[in-house]
Specification:
- There is one protein chain.
- The chain has two domains: about 280 residues, 3-Layer(aba) Sandwich (D-Maltodextrin-Binding Protein, domain 2); about 220 residues, Dipeptide-binding Protein, domain 3.
- The strands form six sheets. Strands 11, 12, 13, 14, 15, 16 and 17 form a seven-stranded mixed beta sheet that branches.
- The protein has about 550 residues and is α+β, with helices and mostly antiparallel strands.
- It starts with a helix and ends in a 5-residue tail after the last strand.
- The protein is built from 16 helices and 21 strands.
- The chain is globular, with a radius of gyration of 23 Å.
């Protein structure tokens, strides 16, 4: 019966997309995918990968990443000018950039957009933005947004004042948090801004249509006012939320989708095929611990039992079909190198590994300290195939390796999981993080004042290290590397989080699609803005 339902659902989706395809005859249309529902389309509020990916289609950024992951001018007319002390960053804007209603984009629009991110009245949870002067005081309501370190230097020049020199500032300015927002339009929409397609004003290559906040199908249409419209091939990009791997492959094989995320189960089936695209990722998948909300997880021995009580090699090979590599610590391997050129794994070492006897000893000691014979923990994951597989593996591994531990699984929509984690009322949650160019963002997740410190871990040692990285080290890479080492070690020594794996993502992409770029970091894996079909394949 389950298989029959799946086939019926797949048939329905294929039929509905076929109608969409026929309706698009005469236009250049790309049929694309996304793996889950969108939590927000407000560029100032995005904090999860799927929302950032969806917003990137219609929100233009100051800079963008090229095929070598180098930042190049986009909405900005040239690379930023940085003062000798590294604290003032001046960004000139293009004069030929317009919103989708024909309104010219100016420096005021960037300033307003950045102010919204830190305005406590807006309630943004986007904290990946650079260390702009007074950002924390503004977010806390201690200073007005006008005191934030961003201003209009002239009609087409934005000036940022930083709290400390930032060696990654140009790459950080590729984030959609810096995408322009038209004040008049935004204030007219009020609290409805960003909740539907009609409440958004596009600045990028495409305009969002047919999205009301909960839709699982929508589209982007070409923006006739986009400054680089002559290099935008597609008139329309139709998006389908596809969580089920079988459905995704059925749609792709039927020619109804031009790209899909490939569940690790199916990667071996497409090895050697021109459709298979693999993208190395710096995304870390972690088992996050609700330390503040669960009395058992406040016991360090219980946490250490979870840290050492599973086999990451088995998870990556047997469960994920090598679509991931085992985590070596909190900071992913490959994001940066030491001043001597060593990788994270080479220099910091493999800090997380399997040691079942030690895990059992930690667990039994923890039970004794708690005065109980066993404990039950609820593990919440998103309801995607990959998340469910990982959750099921963790349940099996922990219950086998740690007698007395019961894991109760809860597979829910991504938005529900986010809500639980941000309420700090959960036991265990399958989470992850894709950093924003600076390795500091990985340990920063667990610093006391960080909005996404889901564990609510509060340690002065970590706060001091993060403050040094953010405010003192600047471009002193030797000091930065040592502080990164210490922060990484602190989180493992205290078992604040259980790093699991570092993703290697597989996709099926129509071989006729060319001109796109893929990225490990940034707003989305695929930049389709200037993609096209070779030889009129559409």
């Amino acid at each position: 019966m389950k298989k029959l339902i799946t086939l019926l659902v797949s048939a329905f989706l294929i039929a509905s997309l076929a109608v969409s395809a026929s309706a698009g005859e005469g236009k250049h249309v790309l049929h694309w995918f996304i793996q889950g529902e969108i939590t927000t389309m407000d560029s100032g509020k995005t904090y999860d990968i799927l929302s950032a990916e969806a917003v990137a289609y219609f929100a233009d950024t100051l800079y963008r990443l090229d095929e070598n992951a180098e930042a190049i001018p986009n909405l900005a007319s040239e690379l930023p000018e940085v003062s000798d002390d590294g604290l003032t960053v001046t960004v000139p804007l293009r004069h030929d950039a317009y919103y989708a209603d024909g309104t010219q984009i100016k420096a005021d629009d960037i300033v307003y957009a950045v102010q919204r991110v830190f305005d406590p009245a807006v309630g943004s949870q986007n904290t990946s933005i650079a260390a702009i002067k007074n950002k924390d005081a503004v977010r806390a309501g201690e200073l007005p947004v006008e005191e934030l370190g961003v201003r209009t230097a002239s009609e087409f020049v934005v000036e940022f004042t930083l709290e400390a020199p930032d060696p990654y500032i140009t790459k950080k300015l590729t984030d959609t948090a810096y995408a322009p927002v038209n004040r008049a339009f935004c204030e007219e929409k009020g609290d409805q801004y960003g909740l539907s397609a009609d409440s958004l004003l596009a600045s990028g290559a495409f305009i969002l249509q047919d999205w009301n906040g909960t839709d699982i199908q929508w589209k982007y249409v070409k923006n006739p006012y986009y400054w680089d419209k002559d290099n935008v091939y597609f008139d329309e990009i139709d998006i389908q939320v596809v969580k089920d791997a079988n459905t995704a492959i059925n749609l792709y094989e039927a020619g109804q989708l031009d790209g899909v995320f490939l569940n690790s189960d199916f990667v071996p089936l497409y090895e050697g095929q021109p459709d298979l695209i693999k993208v190395n990722s710096l995304r870390m998948t972690n088992l996050e611990l609700g330390i503040s909300s669960n009395q058992y997880l406040q016991n360090e021995n219980i946490r250490k039992a979870l840290l050492y009580g599973l086999d990451r090699d088995e998870l990556c090979s047997a469960v994920l079909n090598e679509a991931a590599v085992p985590a070596v610590g909190v900071i992913p391997n490959g994001i940066a190198a030491s001043p001597e050129g060593k990788s994270v794994a080479e220099d910091f070492g493999t800090l997380v590994y399997t040691d079942i006897p030690a895990a059992q000893a930690y667990f039994n000691k923890g039970l004794e300290e708690l005065g109980v014979d066993g404990i039950a923990l609820r593990l919440v994951t998103s309801d995607t195939d990959e998340s469910i597989k990982i959750g099921t593996y963790l349940q099996s591994a922990y219950e086998k390796n740690l007698p007395g531990l019961t894991i109760n699984l809860a597979n829910v929509p991504a938005s529900v999981r986010f809500e639980e984690m941000m309420s700090f009322q959960f036991d265990l949650a399958l989470g992850g993080w894709t950093g924003d160019y600076d390795p500091t963002s990985y340990p920063n997740q667990f610093e006391a004042s960080y909005a996404h410190n889901h564990a609510q871990w509060k340690a002065q040692e970590l706060t001091d290290l993060i403050n040094a990285l953010n405010n003192e080290d600047g471009t002193d890479f030797t000091a930065r590397w040592e502080h990164l080492r210490q922060a990484n070690q602190h989180l493992i020594d205290n078992a604040v989080v259980v790093p699991l794996e570092q993703e290697v993502n597989g996709y099926l992409v129509n071989p006729a699609l060319e001109g796109y770029t893929t990225h490990q970091l940034g707003n989305s894996v695929f930049d389709l803005t200037r993609a096209y079909f070779a030889d009129g394949a559409d």
